[in-house]
């Protein structure tokens, strides 16, 4: 029998996207009060009827979150979600396909494969020779890339550990790279001192000449330049590192070239923005998160590599209890990825791609880039100072009142939060001042929303 709570959830799925504009974007509860209230409300001593419980939790969700799907959430890379992707995610929850082995979920495996092949082609990879997999997110994809690089360049370490290596493997990032590499250095046992921070240029991108000098110096000390990471769409400033030059330097030193395009990879689907990613096709591996700019729910990362055999070396483990491989043309994800049991992460991405089509995705991405350009223009016109030169829609900005010490980015940010109508963040750019950061994360952000943010900022700065 259909449970009424399922119908209630279906009604919420249909109603919420239209309701969200009326909700405050920001919610900042007192943590102790919230914890205590929930602990006294939910003791789990008695069973609860599902329908009223569902009603209550829906009400709590509506009022108890920073709404990242709100068109005036100008935040971290958390997108609004396409209805098609929500459908895909709901079906994944319902059918609970097990993606560890091909034979348990053939139809989902093949839909994921088609989706990944389409994105691989947009990146400039040959879909027939690359390997690609869905991950929980960008951090896992970056980890998988690092482990594949290690398996490829230092195969002896997979048996005898890093201690068996005569040369210490080094990873090259910039100060603007994502900090998942710090965790990765710990998780892999490489150690955080194996992370070399390459200086950045005035444009906030990695300086490839400095990368070359650092790799040369490390090699002469007996270290192994293992991997260079170029970021396509930096987290703080939305900049794209010079991928062709990084590819050249990595090739010269025999290092693995990883492109972290967790957010910026989406530019591959826009004919207008695709040239920004030129050189990405030379990367040995690429991270691209669908749950950043492809407007699908978390978590849906993707890892692509031109070296399927390196993934297999890194992750293949024999076990008698897993079902046998189905055929030579299929591969079992648990043998070539870090995860074992895996959710049907790609189903929602397939749904979004199929519903929008490639042209629809291009329009959605270009609209957001256009809203970013509009925000830069409007902020500048209103006396704010935009400090980054990104084509992708991340805007870093400050104000003369901040520069001359009348107020701070933190005070402006907090005043915006207190008003509740928009969400922005602040960020410390490498070697630069602390600035405010606004990113267009919703395909439903329109010029009036941009104007509303500028209005909020002007109101707040007017007090100083
Ligand atoms: C450039 C970049 N790489 C990797 C990540 C990590 O991705 P995730 O949060 O999906 O693990 C992020 C997150 O913002 C990012 O901006």
Written description of the protein model:
Helices cover 44% and strands 12% of the residues. The protein has helices at 4-19, 31-41, 50-63, 83-95, 106-123, 138-153, 157-160, 180-188, 208-220, 243-253, 290-293, 308-315, 345-381, 400-403, 409-419, 447-462, and strands spanning 131-135, 169-174, 195-198, 224-231, 256-260, 285-289, 301-305, 385-386, 394-398, 425-428, 434-439. The model has no long low-confidence stretch (mean pLDDT 96). It folds into 3 domains: 4-67, no CATH class; 88-353, Aspartate Aminotransferase, domain 2; 357-462, Aspartate Aminotransferase, domain 1. Helix 10 (243-253) links the parallel strand 4 and strand 5 (256-260). Helix 5 runs parallel beside helix 13, helix 6 (138-153) packs across helix 8 (180-188) and helix 15 (409-419) crosses helix 16. The strands form 2 sheets. Strands 1-7-6-5-4-2-3 form a 7-stranded mixed β-sheet, sandwiched between helices. The protein is an alpha/beta fold and 464 residues long. The chain has 16 helices and 11 strands. Residues 77, 137-139, 142, 178, 180, 231, 235, 260, 262-263, 289, 301 line the site of pyridoxal-5'-phosphate (PLP). The site of pyridoxal-5'-phosphate has 14 residues, from helix 6.
The fourth-level CATH homologous superfamily of the largest domain is Type I PLP-dependent aspartate aminotransferase-like (Major domain)
Taking all Cα atoms into account, the compactness measure Rg is 23 Å
Number of helices: 16
Strand content: 5-15%
> Would you state the CATH class of the largest domain?
Alpha Beta
User: How would you describe the shape?
Assistant: globular
For the largest beta-sheet, the strand count, sense and barrel status come to: 7 strands, mixed
Could you estimate the helical fraction of the residues in percent?
A: 40-55%
